[in-house]
Amino acid sequence: MTLQNFMNEAISPWMREEGPDNDIVLSSRIRLARNFANTTYPILADPNQLEEIRDFFKDNYEKKSFQEYKDFSFLPIQNLSAVERQVLVEKHLISPHLVKHADTAAALISENEQVSVMINEEDHIRIQFYLPGFQLNKALEKSFEFDDWLEEKINYAFDETRGYLTSCPTNVGTGMRASVMMHLPALTLTKQINRMIPAINQLGLVVRGIYGEGSEAVGNIYQISNQITLGKSEGDIVEDLQSVVEQLIDHERKARKQIMEQSSKRLEDRIYRSYGVLEYSRIIESKEAAKCLSDVRLGIDMGIITNVSKNILNELMILTQPGFLQQYASKTLNPDERDILRASLIRERLQLEK
């Protein structure tokens, strides 16, 4: 897999697969934070130490395969252009924090983009494992298998009492963040989400936007993840998150049914208006595009719109981000130029469905 493959395809191959409850849960992710034992952590290490860590991954894992995760690509962040870095962030393959440490950071990404390893982010190693739909337990199992594979060559920083040792105290213990990406338009429309978020936070979970900490819930997409990593096992953390997500799925489905029963024409009007904006706009900003794409996806999931596939919607949610637009144009674009190109690409993709 070459860098160009990662750049050209808005949807990662695994995202084209059908997952459980995929009308509401877009993806499940397990992220594991790990560090090398007896080695200074990235926040205090000097560049030479971090370069040694980076080179270790290049020497031992580039072009290697593990189970069905083939041909890992090794990407030093300093070798990527600003647009290439932004595209990888938009695809959730790397974090904005990794980009800030480009001189010594790298990413190891599987061919199907289901596994990515961020090297020298906040910790030496940040493993990310994705599955489509609601599959937290399977994602946990697979991430453990991959983690064990890495540990065959790496001596992790681990304490028998505290667990895995990390740069940030909030990750000590399991070093794990389990999360799901959820599309919750009905709970947002009925404003029920506003009272649910504080209740979820009280359970030791956190609700964030599509790009994690500090981001907005654009397009009615929310990321639900654990906050507590110490004092609970990985299985207990996933079980707690699983329970809350199941309740959110149930509430979202009931809210959709209620809206359809009480104001079906208003809902249909909203969905078709959004479809019309996407189909005919010549200029569209990213927030408006995300809102309209969310409405159309709701229409697809509720059987109101039948001539558009969810994959096109998934693709457009990423393809219309600033990095991808500039990658597509092969040049830097100002905001107005991005808004024009965004509208053009949406019209073009929707035409493919007819």
From TrEMBL:
It is an enzyme of class 2 (transferase). Appears to be allosterically activated by the binding of pArg-containing polypeptides to the pArg-binding pocket localized in the C-terminal domain of McsB. The keyword Kinase applies. It catalyses: L-arginyl-[protein] + ATP = N(omega)-phospho-L-arginyl-[protein] + ADP + H(+). SUPFAM superfamilies: Glutamine synthetase/guanido kinase. Its EC number is 2.7.14.1. One of its GO terms (biological process) is phosphocreatine biosynthetic process. Pfam families: ATP-gua_Ptrans (PF00217). A motif (RDXXRA motif of the pArg binding pocket involved in allosteric regulation) lies at residues 338-343. Keywords: Allosteric enzyme, ATP-binding, Kinase, Nucleotide-binding, Transferase. ATP binds at residues 27-31, 92, 126, 177-181, 208-213. One of its GO terms (cellular component) is extracellular space. GO terms for molecular function: ATP binding; creatine kinase activity; protein arginine kinase activity. Residues 24-255 form the Phosphagen kinase C-terminal domain. InterPro entries: Arg_Kinase, ATP-guanido_PTrfase, ATP-guanido_PTrfase_AS, ATP-guanido_PTrfase_cat, Gln_synth/guanido_kin_cat_dom. Belongs to the ATP:guanido phosphotransferase family. Catalyzes the specific phosphorylation of arginine residues in a large number of proteins. Is part of the bacterial stress response system. Protein arginine phosphorylation has a physiologically important role and is involved in the regulation of many critical cellular processes, such as protein homeostasis, motility, competence, and stringent and stress responses, by regulating gene expression and protein activity. NCBIfam families: PRK01059.1-4, PRK01059.1-5. This is Protein-arginine kinase.
